[in-house]
Amino acid sequence: MPGNIDEFELYCQSEPPEARESLGPVRQLILDAVARLSEGRVHFYLIYHFGGGAVAKLHLGAKQRVDITFVTGEDLTDPEKLLKGSSSVRTIKVTSAAFLEKHREASNDLERQSFALISERFDGFEHFITLRPDQPSP
After folding, report:
1. Which of 45, 53, 86, 110 could make an S-S bridge to 57, C-beta 3.0–4.6 Å?
2. Does the domain formed by 7-121 have CATH 3.90.1150?
3. Taking a C-beta distance cutoff of 8 angstroms, is the pair 39, 7 a contact?
């Protein structure tokens, strides 16, 4: 419909002009990896979610570098060591288009793992199973 603007376009409005070029391919990678995701904006992030759970967050980090953040990061299997961070949240720092292309399959796998964890915790009524800090993920 003319005049409608999606979440990605709204996000890019507050970023430098080259943001669309940097974020677009990464956004498409996320959407292609898991077709059942919805897109939204929260603060400085584009959120890719299932139900109420964030599967991945996309944003421009320091020096306008693209970051993909996983709330489920510490529970993901990452043989290529793409995830950075020491808390439960982990981030892939996309340094270039070549980096993205080289690690496309590994990144897709992390997104699918995150989706699987979020969908396991989702009860179908927009509620999530709450875990204690000492309780492992299901």
Report:
1. 45
2. yes
3. yes
Measured CA to CA, the distance from residue 113 to residue 119 in angstroms comes to: 10
Pairing label, strands 38-42, 45-50: antiparallel
Question: What is residue 4's predicted lDDT score, i.e. its pLDDT?
Answer: 56
Tokens 């139900």 sit on residue: 51
Token output for 39: 């897109």
Structure tokens at 56: 């991945």
pLDDT one-digit tens code per residue, 7-53: 898 888 888 888 889 999 999 999 999 988 989 888 888 999 887 78
**What is the spatial distance between Cα 138 and Cα 134, in angstroms, rounded to a whole number?**
12
Q: How far is residue 121's CA from residue 118's CA, in Å, rounded to a whole number?
A: 5
Residues 6+ apart with CB under 8 A from 35: none
Max intra-chain CA distance, the chain: 50
Read off the pLDDT band of 126 (50, 70, 90).
low
